[in-house]
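Bench log. Compound arrived from synthesis this morning; before running ITC I wanted a structural hypothesis for how NAI sits in the protein. Inputs:
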Amino acid sequence: MKVTIVGAGNVGATCADAIAYRRIASEIVLLDIREGFAEGKALDIMQTQTTLGYNTKVSGSTNDYSKTAGSDVVVITSGIPRKPGMTREELIGINAGIVKTVAENLLQHSPNAIVVVVSNPMDTMTYLTLKATGLPKNRIIGMGGALDSSRFKCYLSQALDKPANDIQGMVIGGHGDTTMIPLTRLASYNGVPVSEFLSSEELEKVAADTMVGGATLTGLLGTSAWYAPGASVAYLVDSILHDQKKMIPCSVFLEGEYGQNDICIGVPCIIGKNGVEKIVDIKLNEDEKAKFAKSADAVRAMNADLKSIL
Ligand SMILES: NC(=O)C1=CN([C@@H]2O[C@H](COP(=O)(O)OP(=O)(O)OC[C@H]3O[C@@H](n4cnc5c(N)ncnc54)[C@H](O)[C@@H]3O)[C@@H](O)[C@H]2O)C=CC1
Ligand SMILES: O=C([O-])CC(=O)C(=O)O
């Protein structure tokens, strides 16, 4: 099984590393526009094979898409990350052109691939990829909810002082500082609602920290995060390639689900070999429904900026 990752920067290379050492794919191609960069990252990853004990083939390419031919999954991480004080939405001017060109190039060589979009503003870049390529909606998946949910569970585990893997929880809505919706009502500690252990003030703090999780890391690092983003992409690719049918919140095209149309936004999905196999329509309460509608309004307003490129 072959995976191509475009953008061999922080997120792309970390994701390649995780896919390789977890043996999720048999072959990985890293592609970047920067001369020699992807080749260097691929060689460095390949030199962990004997110490980490895997045989996945990892190669790099400087903008030669013929090397990506026949990929089962392609991941788009190319573009610029934000700097402290910026929003993800401010990246649209540069990233939209990059994502559109990269998606078109990838599909010329891998016409049957499932496309995972990571570049920000991710929901709008996912919508752009869908509109620009005309691919069926099940084959375009925006990665954001998997990451936001892992941050949500991390903050919950800290507040509860319990292991993160004993926590369940999901974040839906847009992948933005103000558009994410951590579903605190449905989060649990081994099946017991977290509200049994945390006060509403404590839960509100967990939700607020989750929403600005990416901005907090950007402030600390000077550029945006990569370990958890890379691992979240690997988790999603694993569910696709191994047909795991995991329920993962992903940014997907809605046609009536959650009361929305003509938009890509985060909702719980069953992810398997066909990409998005099902959108799970969970019952939201009135407050959650209102938050979702507001989040969709903000994502739709951002999509309007694509007029000049579509
Ligand atoms: N959806 C999500 O949850 C997340 C999204 N991101 C986004 O992912 C993107 C990448 O972030 P980083 O890896 O930290 O940035 P980075 O700057 O480390 O890497 C980006 C790479 O893209 C390459 N690139 C630029 N234009 C290209 C083109 N036309 N073709 C091929 N490669 C090209 C650059 O040379 C660079 O190596 C950013 O837009 C960031 O905001 C980052 C983390 C999480
Ligand atoms: O914060 C950013 O700009 C990158 C990103 O999407 C994340 O880490 O959630």
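What the model suggests: Residues 3 and 258 are 31 Å apart (CA to CA). The chain has a mean pLDDT of 98.
ITC booked for Thursday regardless.
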